[in-house]
Design brief:
The protein is mostly helical. It has 8 helices and 3 strands, in the order αααααααβββα. The chain has a 3-stranded antiparallel sheet. Helix 2 packs antiparallel against helix 3 and helix 6 crosses helix 7. The longest helix has 23 residues.
Length: 170
């Protein structure tokens, strides 16, 4: 059995007030459940920034194109971007590419928490395949192929405005 390793690095200062406040805002904006998701995304960015710095030192244009093409496929960069674009990526850029965020931003759900619930309950398909991970990074090509198998849920306010006879029956 192959042992899984951690895909994140926890903060050095556990009780840094500024970092905790920033993370709280990000968790609220993107509807995350754990701060570990933020740390995982930061680790992802750290990895590609490190690769970009090494390629800038080596001045290897072929590897640079491969790196930019990979990040462009994820929708994080344009095809014609350079290493400066890789180095200027932010955490918010990456979090906007998560399946949970894309479903909420496209208006399939009323909130990002509801988007997370639909995904984990198996109501979301990409290219006909069920995806149950809210942190799934959606490729640029897959963005149009997202489907939701649930009928839109009416809000309580919209249900109250319906004429009698429609909506819930007792």
């Amino acid at each position: 059995m192959i042992r899984q390793r951690k895909k994140y690095k926890s903060p050095v200062k556990a009780w840094d007030k500024g970092r905790i406040e920033r993370e709280r805002v990000i968790v609220k904006d993107f509807g995350m459940k754990k701060k570990r998701d933020i740390w995982r995304a930061e680790n992802f960015l750290r990895k590609y920034r490190r690769i970009a710095r090494k390629l800038a030192a080596k001045k290897d244009k072929d590897q640079e194109k491969v790196l930019v093409k990979k990040l462009a496929g994820l929708g994080l960069l344009n095809e014609n971007a350079g290493l400066d674009g890789v180095l200027s990526l932010t955490l918010e850029n990456l979090l906007e590419r998560r399946l949970q965020t894309i479903i909420f931003r496209k208006g399939f759900t009323n909130s990002s928490k509801q988007a997370r619930q639909f995904i984990t309950h198996g109501h979301v398909k990409i290219n006909g395949k069920k995806v149950v991970y809210p942190s799934y990074l959606v490729l640029k090509d897959e963005e149009e192929k997202i489907e939701i198998d649930v009928q839109p849920v009416r809000s309580a306010k919209a249900a109250a405005e319906l004429p009698k006879g429609e909506g819930k029956t007792s």
